[in-house]
Predict the structure.
Amino acid sequence: MFRAILLERDGDAVSSRVAELHETDLPDGDVTIEVHHSTVNYKDGLAHRGAHGVVDRYPMVPGVDLAGVVTASSDSRYHPGDRVVVNGCRMGERHWGGHSELARVPGDWVVMLPENIDTATAMAIGTAGLTAMLCVLALERQGLGPDDGPVVVTGASGGVGSVAVSLLATQGWSVDAVTGRPEEADYLRNLGAAGIVDRGEMTEPPRPLESQRWAAGVDAVGGLTLANVLARIRYGGAVVACGNAGGMDLPTSVAPFILRAVSLIGVESVVVPHDRRVQAWERLATDVDRDQLGSMVTTVGLDETPEVCARILEGQVRGRIVVDIGGPASGVTPRQ
Ligand code: NDP
């Protein structure tokens, strides 16, 4: 038997409970994993709320991330004892996810953890950190670096934003952090932000072009915030859009693209190809500042996740939430 959060639907209402399940209840898959740590992401909040278009079958075990130890595998790439991580892949939406002591997934979703990343650290990074790293890699592919000028990060106190601020500052970028929470200014400065920008400055409808301020941007917010960022990007710069915490729309014009040669790059982490995931995890293993990562993390138990899922939708969560699953030991010894 194992414990898991189970989302169930009754008409339009979605409820959650801690359920005792049997291994035979697990979905099909090649790799069975004893989950040691998971996370709470914005999407988990949406799943708990029963938001339209997130969970497409019930009952569902939420949790878009997991890290743990393989207990059984019919995929020759993985063996009992391997320390692995799985992010996204529609876990918690179409396939049972990580808020569970045990999980089973297709082998193509699994990434071996780099040697120097344990399961708690992997989940401190989580999908938010993976996404932030994919954004950094996208800027690098665009040929942009710290010498080109300052970079702006929106939704900065959130999960994606916090890791993005830290990664970019560690690389030498001068980072401006946009936040609606002035009380988090010291937290953001400790992550390496050189400047703090009040969210209010970025929520009025912009003119098509504002004065040129940043060489690059990482945007977790969308809506008017992204429109304001685009209007302030320097000639030849780029913005990586990865989130919609502030809205799905994009009230802008083509002016930044056709008059300043600005690029808008999309990043997504759910179905990103396996080789890109491996590349991002390898870079996370070397580039993440562990002390800064530690300052972003709040750890909760499995039973607390429903309450945290409600708070993340209210923008009340700072940094990263790690779920310490604390499940029964399978007797499988993790390989180092
Ligand atoms: P968090 O809730 O941790 O962070 C979002 C942050 O956005 C908040 O902390 C807040 O930062 C800011 N924010 C919230 N509401 C608003 C608003 N109405 N207007 C402006 N800013 C707002 O979420 P995550 O960091 O985990 O995710 C951020 C976004 O990225 C979400 O939309 C999520 O769905 C998306 N995402 C996308 C992924 C992908 O694959 N593309 C993967 C992971 C997440 P502050 O208080 O500092 O202003």
Summary: Residues 41-43, 127-128, 131, 155-161, 179-181, 199, 220-221, 225, 242-246, 267-270, 312, 315, 317 surround NDP (CB under 6 Å).
